[in-house]
Specification:
Organism: Mustela putorius furo (European domestic ferret)
Number of helices: 2
Oligomer: single chain
CATH topology of the domain at 46-135: Translation Initiation Factor IF3
Number of strands: 10
Protein name: Zinc finger, MYND-type containing 15
Order of helices and strands: EEEEHEHEEEEE
Radius of gyration: 18 Å
GO molecular function: histone deacetylase binding
């Protein structure tokens, strides 16, 4: 029972961590798959959790295909951004792609402690500074309405 890591060209990194802890006669396993490919192109079983770092939904058209796939699977998905403005843009992209949205961004307690300067405007930012999760629109025909949440303030340009 030890870690098993494999790297496959083009598919990212896979890791399987086995624990010797027995749970009701079974074995508790943790599998982690890391990929740089667009999510909608990945094959395999439905994941339990999706995490994306400095996602930039509005910067890549591939998110317009990946976000609907996450919506259809209803996988818990958390993302980070380097700025509040990026979080607002991600929320707008999620709304366009799925009709859903994102939770209000919160400061990420695990962000990089080093302040960086943006190349285009010298504004300070931190790697993974804010964290949010996807808020999926209710399935059609469920009659459920999403709970209203606070509207995040729009950052000044």
């Amino acid at each position: 029972d030890g870690p098993e890591v494999s790297v496959r060209p083009g598919s990212g990194v896979s890791a399987r961590l086995s624990s010797s802890t027995k749970e009701k006669g079974g074995r508790r396993d943790l599998q982690i798959k890391v990929s740089a490919r667009p999510y909608h192109l990945l094959q395999g079983p439905k994941p339990d959790l999706v995490i994306g770092f400095n996602s930039g939904f509005g910067l890549k058209d591939t998110w317009l295909s990946s976000l609907p796939r996450l919506q259809s699977l209803r996988v818990p998905a958390f993302f980070t951004e380097s700025s509040e403005y990026g979080c607002v843009m991600d929320d707008q992209t999620m709304a366009v792609a799925t009709g859903g949205g994102t939770s209000p961004p919160r400061p990420n307690p695990f962000r990089s402690p080093f302040r960086l300067r943006a190349a285009d405007n010298c504004m300070p930012w931190y790697c993974n500074a804010f964290i949010f999760h996807l808020v999926y629109k209710p399935p059609q025909g469920s009659g459920a309405r999403p709970a209203p949440g606070p509207v995040p303030p729009v950052p000044a340009p």
